[in-house]
Amino acid sequence: MNRTNRFALVGMSLIAVATLAACGGSSSPAYGGAPGCTAATATATSSVTMQNMAFSPACIKVAAGTTVTFTNNDTLTHTVTADDGSYASAALGPAQVFQHAFATAATSHYHCTIHPSMVGTVIVQ
Description:
Elements: H1 3-22, E1 43-44, E2 47-51, E3 54-56, E4 59-62, E5 66-72, E6 81-82, E7 97-102, E8 106-111, E9 119-124
Parallel strand pairs: 1-4, 2-5, 4-9
Antiparallel strand pairs: 2-3, 5-7, 6-8, 8-9
């Protein structure tokens, strides 16, 4: 391969890499809520705790108009942040509480922005 062809190949490779990097998707991860969470498997409660790097229960169902209380029972700081950005707590230290009213029937997936493996789902009926 001659020198001109090598430069052309390197140039095309760099363009391909830059194009793929630009198409990497959205800047925010898709958390998706609690795995396997359905209305049939959800726990009927309006209280969720954060402990041992998890929301518990991670899959809940409530009636429309219910206020859900999220309490940090962990020694670490956590957040409660809707995947769609519709609600978000401040950083919650130990024993701190966040409340959110779920006004209409929908499914809301949420996560901890500090610990992305912490996910949960609220099914509002």
